[in-house]
Design brief:
The structure is a homotetramer of 354-residue chains. Chain A is α+β, with helices and mostly antiparallel strands and 354 residues long. The first copy, chain A, has a single domain, classed as Chorismate synthase AroC (Chorismate synthase, AroC fold, 4-Layer Sandwich). Chain A has nine helices and 18 strands. Chain A has a five-stranded antiparallel sheet with strand order 1-2-3-7-4, covered by helices on one side. In chain A, strands 9-8-10-16-11 form a five-stranded antiparallel sheet. In chain A, strand 12 and strand 13 form a beta hairpin. In chain A, helix 1 packs across helix 4, helix 4 packs across helix 9 and helix 7 packs antiparallel against helix 9. The N and C termini of chain A lie far apart (42 Å). Chains A and B meet through strand 1, helix 3, helix 7, strand 11 and helix 8 of A and strand 1, helix 3, helix 7, strand 11 and helix 8 of B. Strand 11 of chain C pairs antiparallel with strand 11 of chain D, so a sheet runs across the interface.
């Protein structure tokens, strides 16, 4: 397996399975002098815990205590690589007999087995969503770097189970269930979740990620466009099946006269571009949306086959989340943060010369 | 500027501006023994020419003759890096006085200037769509490699100006105007284009790209998921504002019971996953869609500012395309081909050991 | 800081300072199915401990207990990234007052300060030789991979303090003081070390590294020649000031008729090439030598300046090693092992196609 | 084949065989605003031509006219990737019958065949020394970048056929035969070359490369040490079998008290370190030496085997160079220039933050 490193200048390399001794990572390329301690990483990790807000995730206990092993001295980064670990503490052995020998629809079971000749049925191994704790920790470091540049990152739910929000208070969203920017939608979503859950089903949604106060000029004009890097970052999170920038999909059925953002003496008069023109940041908010598929583990009966190819049916019990939202939000936030941190450092290197 | 190299194993490095002596690139990492000659690259380049099918692109003459300088001997690749050039022949000096000192809405003018302190107003320089000829040539080489593995790539238009197709003959699409999989939609699209053109406006659309006979097992489970790499590849093409895999956006408002692809003894019973599970190919067709924004150059009056920040209005004359489709199709095809070639070589390296 | 990752396919990313909580690393790209457990890493780490063989290194106690956190299941690699940590246990606070405010000659003090604006005077921080424990652990993993291919790596001392060996039993060297291939030289070297130590001075030497049973064909013909990668790997170890391959330096004053290796029906008749021709392995033993400078910390008085640029003199007390040999040997062994593992995986990817 | 790209930030990707239509490359990552035109590249390319100074190289005619296709506008770099080509003009078909079916001792014939299953007997193909023209062109661009920073690079011969120089006028060396820093040695070397040539033999030598006015702080402390990168760069040139930095090999038999460079109020009092401490530049001249093996093509009879393994003997006729020096000097100069340019841009990115 390869591809366990993310980024070109600000680089996160991760390791860890859902059922090994622990997970962790190394951040290379973080400049010296950034205020950082474990509490800042823990804050983001806690947002990813189950049972945070809304009814979509079940209240399992997962400690996820992070320890920083290097790269920080007296509360500031030293510029050296930052190593961190997150021990696995919640590995009570489930009964996997029901899924051990079948390919779960919607999961990586079949494709992973095709690639590696085996799979870790105890929760997906490296393919488990648990892998994302290392991303969240790395993203927290990126967010501290960005904060020192005045840049803030937000990830808030704009649609759940087909029900969109009517308000966009993304700053307040951080403290609401489902990280909702609309206070009034929470109960509606709760009802929808309860309803779907009662049918033994699951649902998806849409998460909008936003970066504010990003300077104009980030991104490279050809392959490493800022939007291309963002699409890669967000789509690399399991369950994400689509990514759009600014007006995105809607731009495809719009007209040039409507989709172009007119410019006035005080700047752009709209932001259909999502803050990116020709792959380079324009100084407006960077706005992207990730489309999340429903959790594939459902208790309803599904047709599948055993690992020997024999037709069978499967009902996945146990306490599974009903939606990847809101636990996926801090992960998407982390991916946008690391992407912008990377492009920021990349740009510092090669702008016009002084 | 950086980011002029695409891919990790099968790597394309490109160069060239719209108004310099020429463009070209180097393909590194292509195995030896692949049948290749210039005609195979020319075939794809010709599909990108203006005035091919439909009324959306104007019939300017662009030679785009490619020459291969290395890496091919007696009709086969030697395994060494393949250098190719495409001279610029169509550089009759336009009158740029109207756009020289203003920021064109929807173009990279403002962001590029913010990054580099200047811009090449003579057609966008490195940000010009002309840069994509090198991608098409590199993609043609990737397609020959994939062909030797039995893999074929298709790029066909499934929606133009908000009008979707009703048929999906993607094999026949290669020979139809707009690379349309639906013979009956061409006239409808032509009328739509004429109508929009008469209003001095432009339109966008949706292009579906598909890879057939891709073996299961391509893609890496964490950051370098096949869908993440594809999203990066497609979004790196100018005018693309959204990318989805399989059921994509629709998955976000679906249910687990509907979106999961059941499995039978003969394989998957549907393909909502778009051929990718957990970031790894499943053996089904790889299906992605790119959402294309309208061409930003319109003859309608638009509000903008001069490079000095003075409010003004702009009408862009000249013979501009009305839609990026169908000229963008071979570019998207090339990006998918290079991505799958890269993942194929990446996987060969690190699968289960013999 | 960047550059904390080594290798392209078999990749080691390291972290850790001499005085932080711990050190460690992540190995990405190791295939699945390689027998591996912590004892194999510990074995190599123990060879790097002080007080092993000979009088050149002092007998400080350093536990250096390694823990593997991921990538290994039931005694075999799973193909996922392998994370490991090595806690710092021996951090009793020294008295640094004598060196805190002066630049030590021969150390990185001045250049590191020039780069980062500060330095970690408590043992060099990231520039400390302690950083190499992560290399040794990563190299141990590479050696298991190579062992599964029948390849063995050796690092033995061929010269110490200007005194060369007269025998080359490199297999037996692993169990001798100074990792000496010559049993009779050990006492001579011990006398030399005692003598130099009594003068408050230090000395250097030459370590030969060798890989046996390496298949012909490893290495890329242009920039990534096997010898170029090896030179990079060995020179990246502190204290190494020169690297040669095969006849190396001597080739420069030889003649073509003497330096060429004639070929017979049973293979090459000599190995002046050190097993590498045109950057590609020839199937003979890969032989390289690293030239090690004397330990810069000496108790003799040296002229230097304070961090404020005031002239002063410095005598470095405490229990310092007299030579980097033999502790540097397992580090050089690790660097050669990771380099060959990397080129092996690189070559598997892109040879002639089947 | 892979490994046709050199550098991480300032990146050169090359292509071209000795007998194809042409060679060339792409430089990515060169900042905007550097004065550049083809004459600057041509100047360095001309230094690599045969028959320049001394009797070691024969006076074949090779045009090597370079053309820049992109990245330069009105005499300055634009920051976009710089593409250049060098057509092959001197491909008169030799008679290869003598070498077609035998492995030439000292050449890559055997190892290349083992890797790729074939070889290009018409001059080595990608393994030919001709490949280095692209390096020289790329290095010329790097030297212009360095010049704008006040940094100069020199490559001069300090030993030929075992005869060392007695003077070190490296600035004057650029205009002397063999790029000799010692005017009085030229005749001695000429006699040596004549003598060896008359015996149908060849010889090697030592080239010293030097960078002046390099700021302190370049290089990364762990794997990407400046000396490690330099060793990689120089060793990647065919015929180089050893690399040393500063006192290099001699340091291994010296003492700490002699090898350490004392520091005074006005800086270092000697430069045994070769301008690099802990992998980071110290502000002194960067000094490295490359040890060059004799040209393997000799007219004396050598024992070898046919490609079928049958014992035979070989005498290589034709007009071959007697030594790689002085044609290799501009290549080594180019490699050092690109390495320092790369580290310079790398360092700009990640020093201490403002």
């Amino acid at each position: 397996m390869s591809g366990n490193t993310f980024g070109s200048i600000f680089r996160l390399t991760t390791f860890g399975e859902s059922h090994g001794p622990g997970l962790g990572g190394v951040v290379d390329g973080c400049p010296a002098g950034i205020p950082l301690d474990e509490s800042m990483l823990q804050l983001e990790l806690d947002k990813r815990k189950p049972g945070q807000g809304g009814l979509a995730s079940t209240a399992r206990k997962e400690a996820d205590k992070v320890e920083i092993l290097s790269g920080v001295f007296e509360g500031k980064t030293t510029g050296t690589s930052i190593g961190f670990t997150i021990p696995n503490t919640n590995q009570r052995s489930h009964d996997y007999s029901t899924i051990k020998d079948v390919f779960r629809p919607g999961h990586a079971d079949y494709s992973f087995t095709a690639k590696y000749g085996f799979r870790d049925y105890r929760g997906g191994g490296r393919s488990s969503g648990r892998e994302t704790v290392s991303r969240v920790a790395g993203g927290a470091i990126a967010q501290e770097l960005l904060r020192s540049e005045g840049i803030a990152i937000y990830a808030y739910t704009v649609e759940l189970g087909g029900i969109p929000v009517n308000a966009y208070d993304f700053e307040g969203a951080q403290d609401r269930p489902y990280f909702s920017p609309d206070p009034d939608i929470v109960d509606v979503w709760n009802d929808r979740v309860k309803d779907v859950k009662s049918q033994g089903d699951t649902l998806g949604g849409v998460v909008e990620v936003r970066a504010t106060s990003v300077p104009a000029g980030l991104g490279e004009p050809v392959f490493d466009k800022l939007d291309a890097r963002l699409a890669y970052a967000l789509m690399s999170v399991g369950a994400v099946k689509g990514v759009e920038i600014g007006s995105g999909m809607n731009a495809s059925c719009s007209l040039g006269s409507l989709n172009n953002d007119p410019i006035g003496p005080d700047g752009f008069l709209s932001n259909n571009a999502g803050g990116i023109l020709g792959g380079i940041s324009s100084g407006q908010d960077i706005v992207a949306r990730a489309f999340i598929k429903p959790i594939p583990s459902i208790s309803q009966e599904q047709s599948t086959v055993t690992t020997d190819g024999i037709a069978t049916s499967l009902s996945i019990g146990g306490r599974h989340d009903i939606a990847a939202i809101p636990r996926i939000n801090p992960v998407l936030k982390a991916m946008m943060a690391m992407t912008i941190a990377d492009m920021l450092l990349l740009d510092r290197r090669l702008g016009v010369r002084d």
